[in-house]
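Thread: quick sanity check before group meeting

JM: Hey all, I'm pulling together slides for Thursday and realized we never actually wrote out the predicted structure for the chain we discussed last week. Dropping the sequence here so it's in one place. If anyone has concerns about the input, flag it before I start.
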Amino acid sequence: MYTLYRIKFLTTIICLIYCFEMSGQNPSVYIQTDRSYYLPGEPVLFKAFWSDGKYGNSVSPKDSLHLVVLDQEGLEVTSKVFPMNKTMIDGDLILPDILTEGDYILIGFTGSMKNYLPDKIYSRILEIRKSTDDFLKTDIVLTADAYNSGSNLTAQIRFSLNDSKPVPASFTYELDGKTDIFLDGNNMANNEGVASLRLQLPKFDNKEILKLIIVPSYKGFRNITGIIIPTHFNSAGNETNSNLSTSTGESKHLNIELKPVNTSTGKNVKVQLEINVTDDSGLPATASLSVSVSNIVPHQLANEDDNLLNYKNKLNIQPEAASTMDIKEYFVQLLIRDTQLPGHPFVIQEKNNPKKLRKNVFSARSSPNTLIWEPNVTTDKSGSAFVNFINNDKSAEVLISVDGMASNGACGSNSIHYTIKQ
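JM (edit): ok, ran it. Output follows.
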């Protein structure tokens, strides 16, 4: 099972931090999306909030919302500008249908924020997948937390399809450095989908970054997976979000309770979701909500934050560094740092072709993995709201995510998931 069981705790912490950031006087943008993973050609459905830190103030009619998606090379693969005539807008950003598989980063800002430091700008990691039905997942587990120069490394590798069924995939492997390939070879998993690699690491110093890259082959599936070798130089990188302040100051937040009905029933069955929102004092709160119901699929994001709320720009890069850094360079570093953690597998992204992207004709495809997207749900005076939807026609894990914000800037988030029975 995925680490989604930790989602309520993680997103509550992130929400409190976001509310604290929003309590300042700097204008800011916060964007909710319907999912964290997409197929090429799909629309990213979003809802955007704008605030000048005072709340209740109107948006300048001349201002606009800018959304940009960057790949790991800093290439702008898609972007769009939306007029902002109110503090909340919703829309979609269509992804090119020729994107390569891997991790991308979505950034959002208003026209008036262009000269802000990049750490003041919203960002969210998106995982682009070629398919959610035909997916070969590679799990790599290293037997040590950190390795020394020249030491022996043992890696346990497991291959499975999206239904977690193990497969005896054959694969090639490489041990790469910044500039050199130190060794390579080929191997094959057993009938349980498991293989073991025993390698001797080269001599290295604190400037070297070693990656083990696995390229499997099984009935046409292709999903290149890498893992950065944890060493005594970079092992601190395993402590994710260590510099993310959890101070809430005088921030306010919303408590969102989700009560789904009939989640234990089967396919094509109506489900009613009851949402109750209260403030810090336990009193009913009127809030603007976005509700997403989507299929859960296997993925390899290091930070498994399928919940919509994800405002965490200030991790390790200090404002002093950000002030001298190009905005694309900043967010590429942020993307790589958050998705390529030592000891955690990640998808190796093949390069996108900028010429093809410039000529690409955007055509939105349907989003079968988003069962419902309701960006404009408002609670009544009792703090309640109801949303109805239909389970899909295939057995799947379903994630319900709700984000909310009140007029005074208080925000909250919650998620639950369940299995559609046969």
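AS: nice. The chain has four helices and 23 strands. Helices lie at 7-22, 319-322, 327-339, 354-359.
JM: adding both to the slides.
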